[in-house]
Design a protein that fits this description.
Helices cover 32% and strands 32% of the residues. With 206 residues, it is α/β, with parallel strands linked by helices. Strands 1, 2, 3, 4, 5, 6, 7 and 8 form an 8-stranded mixed beta sheet that branches. 26% of the residues are buried.
Length: 206
């Protein structure tokens, strides 16, 4: 009888141990930047000219600490926190490039936009090169985008302008959704700055 009780006890412990190794649901959540709303199409004066702008985007350089799927938060000036559950749905640099090109296509009213690298036979009228210095949220969930960028004109690769943008967008809600929305708005602000600059340069050359 004692042996039978011991056997039952061992079976119970074994089953309890197996239960501890049962699959757990993946807590990961995936986020993506969003482009500007369609209502901004053709918002610039010079974007309505008959000849569509042919624009090349890139190369776009990102800091190494953002080369990861996990979402990064700058908790202090010198410390970064990496989320254990919140991730980008695609590489952040690719997501950033795609949304920026969608925004510029909308603002400049053109479908002639290509992302670096492109073939030697494709020669955009202007090329926008961007060095992203910072692209993350802070403890308050506000989006921060600091970037140095230049517009290169024509096949001779002549630099038409060099600028630096420091954009901070306040979040509307204290959550990762709010953070990503603020970062999307920051990309929208950078897109407007670039579109206005390119449009002004093109206007001077006409």
């Amino acid at each position: 009888m004692k042996r039978w009780i011991k056997a039952v006890g061992l079976i119970g412990l074994s089953l309890a141990g197996c239960g501890g190794f049962s699959p757990r649901p993946d807590p990961s959540r995936f986020f993506t930047l969003s482009s500007l709303p369609q209502v901004e199409q053709g918002a610039l004066k010079n974007s309505t000219r008959p000849e569509k702008m042919f624009l090349g985007i890139g190369p776009i350089k990102f800091p190494g600490y953002l080369d990861r799927h996990e979402i990064v938060v700058r908790s202090t000036q010198n410390r970064l926190d990496v989320s254990e559950t919140d991730r980008w749905a695609e590489p952040l640099q690719e997501n950033f490039s795609r949304v920026l090109s969608e925004n510029l296509a909308l603002l400049l009213n053109t479908d002639l936009i290509i992302i670096y690298p492109w073939s030697p036979t494709e020669r955009p009228r202007y090329q926008v090169e961007i060095d992203v210095l910072r692209f993350e949220t802070n403890r308050e969930r506000n989006g921060q985008l600091f970037a140095r960028w230049s517009v290169v004109a024509g096949a001779d690769k002549k630099v038409a302008v060099v600028k630096e943008s420091r954009i901070i967008r306040n979040t509307k809600e204290n959550s990762t959704d709010g953070s990503v929305a603020a970062l999307s708005e920051a990309v929208g602000d950078l897109s407007r700055e670039i579109a206005e600059t390119v449009s002004a340069i093109a206007g001077r050359k006409e």
